[in-house]
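User: Okay, second chain of the day. Same drill as before: sequence in, structure tokens out.
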Amino acid sequence: MTQERFTPLPPRHAQAFERAIKQSDVPIRALTGHLLLHTGMRNGEYNHMRPSWLSKDDEDLVINIPEKEECVKGVGPTGMGNQKERNLNDRGEPCAKCRNKSHREDDCWEAKTSAAARTIRISKSHQTLIELLDWWKRGFDYVPLSHRGVNYHLNQLADEAGLDRRVTAHDLRFTHGVMLTRDDWTVSQIMERLGYSSLEPAQQFTTDLE
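Assistant: Same drill. Structure tokens below.
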């Protein structure tokens, strides 16, 4: 498997990005920024999140990412475009990302690896994020944003933060890992939090990034 380019936000950029999140008056944009920065979730995991993934443990919120979830993210009629007679554009169910996986036999999203099916705890110290997730659960049910929609909102936040770069969900995933390292999380704890199947990709966060 090809190693993904390691692109965390530098500390001053991460701080500016977080300020932009807090100042945003667009709830779904604020949720997207908060959630990806403070959980390290992948874009596809966020796209397919359901209310059933969320539960409370005392005052903390817990996100339980399953191994598989039915994908109902697509809209409009499906067409013919590949050997499975599935549409190659963004319309139809399931979403384009799911239906164009050649190995997939059903209309489900699947976690990237077995290790990616994991539990993410959100501490009560992130009360704003907990409130935004509760708002999403009540108002948006299980359809948050498309893959491209996530990147759109992240780049709006990047512009508002004055960053001269694009920001993706994976940039925030890496930034979250760096933040955990600075909070003295071990490599094995980071591996579990981010859903890696080995220690190797988690070890990149121990590098001095200052």
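The domain at 11-50+124-204 is CATH 1.10.443.10 (hpI Integrase; Chain A).

User: Thanks, on to the next one.
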